[in-house]
Amino acid sequence: MPHAASNKEMRVLVTGAAGFVAPYVIDALKRFASIPTVFFATAKAPGSVPGIGEVAALDITDRDAVSRLVAGTRPHVIVHLAGVSDLGIAHANPQAAWNVNLGGTLNVARATLQHSPDAVFLFAGSCQVYGTAALSGQLLDECALLEPTGEYAATKAAADLALGMLARRGLRSLRMRPFNHIGPGQTPSFSVPSFAAQIARIEKGMQEPVIKVGNLEPQRDFLDVRDVADAYAKACLKADSLEPGSIFNIASGTPIRLREILDKMIALAGCQIRVEVDPARWRENEIPLLAGDARKAAACLDWSPGYSIDETLNAVLSEQRAKCRSAN
Question: Which residues of 173-203 are buried (b: 16+ CB within 10 A; e: fewer)?
């Protein structure tokens, strides 16, 4: 339990609460925490989020608004999930990606140092920061060089390095570098939910029996979002035993080709499906293999993946099938 928390409650500020990962992290913290946990959930726009409830508005690029919120809530833990996470959006609007992913992260981190200096600051980074270091073809550990190749990856690498610097000034930062995580709730702008959404529509006769895909040859280290959330929660709760600025890869260590992922999902479908390459979905200069070594997380966080890839793919497809049923 973070030492700043009293024995009565733990206050947790979650940014990016309207995103894919937030409901899972909140659930994991509720399950693992030994004392009552009070959550302050924020997103760019206010509203109700399934699995969380009402969230407050917070634009993390507004330094004064961030400062007021942290000063008013005095959290014991900050789970910083907010950011531009879609690689295509970051490429199309790079300035916004830098403003949010680097500038917004620094705003939250500096407000933490000023108003809640004993708080644990967990940063949801990305395996994309390794970039061309993955061309070695080996599983990457936390000592691998940061060699980002795209706009999104560069913004996340810059924020990661900045939080390492701020750790030397007292910030209790934990830098998580999760590999590709999937599960219910992820938008179809990502490959696996895109496959699932198309399969579900085909099954219901809402789409011709053709799946449009990009490059299926890259190998990626896929994780269930629930496993990633568990790792984040465990890191927060074990923070007193971790060095500020600690880095953790969150990975399975087992890369799988996107083509195999799609084959598995088509096998779950109740109909014949043809696969068609769509040039619009093709990404230039994709890293052939990107997979991580998570032995440090296993040793320090007592963490390992619990869900199989087949369980996760079933969950993703089930969600998209339910959406198609409700659309009718």
Answer: bbbbbbbbbbbbbbeeebbbbbbbbbbbbbb
